[in-house]
Amino acid sequence: MPLQDLTPQLRTRLNQMERAVGWFVFLAAALLLFGFGYYLYHTAERKGWFVIKAPFHTYVQSSAGLSVGDPVYMMGFPVGQITRIHAMPPLDPHMVLVDFEIRDTYFRYLWTGGSYLKVNSAGFLNQRQLEVTRGTNGYAVVVTQPISILGLAEAKQLATAAPGDWQLAQEVYTDTSNLVFHAYAPVEAVLDDSNAQLLAQCTFESNSIYVFNNKVNRNRVVASWDGRVHRYKIFKPGDDTAWLRTVEAPTVSDQLQAMVTQVQAALPGILSLTNKLATVLDNAANATSNLNSTIVAAQPLVTNFANISGQLRAPGGLTLWALGTNSHFQLESALTNANSLLVNVNTNLDQLTWQVGATLENLAGITSNLNVQVGANSNMLGSISKIVVDTDDFVQGLKRHWLLRSAFKVKTTNAPASNPKQK
Questions:
Q1: How far apart are CA 65 and CA 59, in angstroms?
Q2: Helix, strand or coil for residue 172?
Q3: Whether the Cβ atoms of residue 241 and residue 102 lie closer than 8 Å to each other
Q4: Which of 59, 72, 171, 323 could disulfide-link to 80, CB 3.0 to 4.6 Å?
Q5: 21, 28, 413 from 33: Cα distances, Å
Q6: Per-residue pLDDT tens for 99-117?
Q7: d(Cα 73, Cα 80) in Å, to the nearest integer?
Q8: Pairing of strands 142-143, 223-226
Q9: How many whole angstroms separate alpha carbon 423 and alpha carbon 417?
Q10: CA 120, CA 122: separation in Å to the nearest integer?
Q11: Are 191 and 155 in contact (CB under 8 A)?
């Protein structure tokens, strides 16, 4: 139906619908553009498009496991990425050149004291990753403060006009290669008149000094520390990069190959050892078999020993086992006979001792009488008198001797004892 054939009400409603559809399309397009812009912003922020990036390079032995775009880590955080991997030309002492960049503010953690690049294994599929370490001392590897090359007089003038703003961008050595001023030292303190005699002994390139103003910063890295010349080297925009020392670990495949080689070298010894172990096990099996036979043969012996020990634990078991079953009665008879013998010996010994005592008393009486007679007869020979006296002394000595003293005891009588009250 042609539009002019529509009623005015229908045409009004159709125009309103067209305006609503137009507004919807406009809002949808605006939302789409806003979402796309938001996505681009966050992608740029995530990839560091709006931050300063410091370019670095290093040398590795092999590019295996490394790819352009791989992240670079520091303390576990992704701080940059690899930008180029390139093989070095023939006869060059280095093998592979790897360029990478570190985002702000992470490149400010890199200092000459302690910062280097590690190439670590990242998986079992020969993958590797780069990791930079955090520095602790020294000088910043890269800086954003522009480096100025000034004459000594000009540098002194600028430092005097703005004290504390200008610092050394180099190390200052004497003619004898002694370090006298470190980098970052205030320029006004270094070029002070009190150091004139010391500065006269120092060497400067073209009588100029490298300095920087710590109040001025660029939105890019402008210089890096060069340890060969002991100063910051000014970058040419888009050309120069900073260098980091590399500590490269062997790849997983190389480590596995070294392990396989070591295992192959040790395999003959392992086989020999297993053969020796098999021989030892066979000998052990034979020994246990023989031991089993020995134990079976020793069972009667053990049984007999158990019986003997049981008999020995019984009261008088040792005597019965050693002397027989009649040993108790025989031993009792022997002890009775020995007791009787001891009683008889004691009685006979007492009788014999009494008889010896009586004999000795008779002898003493004879010798006493003889002594009296000899004393009365002064005409007898002196020798006989001496013999008698010596014999009497000998007998008296026998009476006092402890062994024969009991033989000279005087027998007691049955006389009543005296009453002590009567005295």
A1: 15
A2: strand
A3: no
A4: 72
A5: 18, 9, 159
A6: 999 998 899 999 999 999 9
A7: 7
A8: antiparallel
A9: 12
A10: 6
A11: yes
More confidently predicted of 374 and 110: 110
**Can you read off the two tokens belonging to residue 100?**
């990478």
* C-beta of residue 106 within 8 angstroms of C-beta of residue 79: yes
Half-sphere exposure of 126 (CA within 13 A, CB side): 10
Q: Whose structure tokens read 């930079």?
A: 132
Exposed e or buried b for every residue in 369-397, given b needs 16+ CB within 10 A? ebeeebeeeeeeeeeebeebeebeeebee
126-135, 140-149, 167-176, 307-316: segment of lowest average pLDDT: 307-316
- How far is the CA of 347 from the CAs of 201, 343, 352, in angstroms? 132, 6, 9
Concatenated DSSP letters of 3-36: GGGS-HHHHHHHHHHHHHHHHHHHHHHHHHHHHH
pLDDT at res. 64: 87
Q: Which residues pair with residue 362 across a beta bridge?
A: none
Q: d(Cα 414, Cα 343) in Å, to the nearest integer? A: 27
What's the gap between Cα 223 and its chain centre? 46
3-state secondary structure of 50: coil
* The pTM of the whole model exceeds 0.85: no
For residue 202, the one-letter residue type is C
What count of Cα atoms within 13 Å lies in the side-chain half-sphere of residue 120? 15
pLDDT tens for residues 384-413? 767 778 887 877 777 776 666 666 666 555
Burial of 287 (0-12, 13-18, 19+ CB in 10 A): exposed
Q: Are 230 and 170 in contact (CB under 8 A)?
A: yes
Q: Which of 327, 299, 401, 313 is nearest to 357 (CA)?
A: 401
Q: Residue for token digits 């192959």?
A: 264
Residue with tokens 């009250």: 421
Helix/strand/coil for 310:
helix
- Closest-CA residue to 135 (of 76, 219, 74): 74
* Mode of pairing for the β-strands spanning 53-60 and 242-243: parallel
Smallest CA-to-CA distance from 250 within 81, 65, 37, 379 is with 65
pLDDT one-digit tens code per residue, 117-155: 999 887 767 788 999 999 999 999 999 999 999 999 999
The phi and psi torsions of 211 (rounded to 5 degrees) equal -140, 165
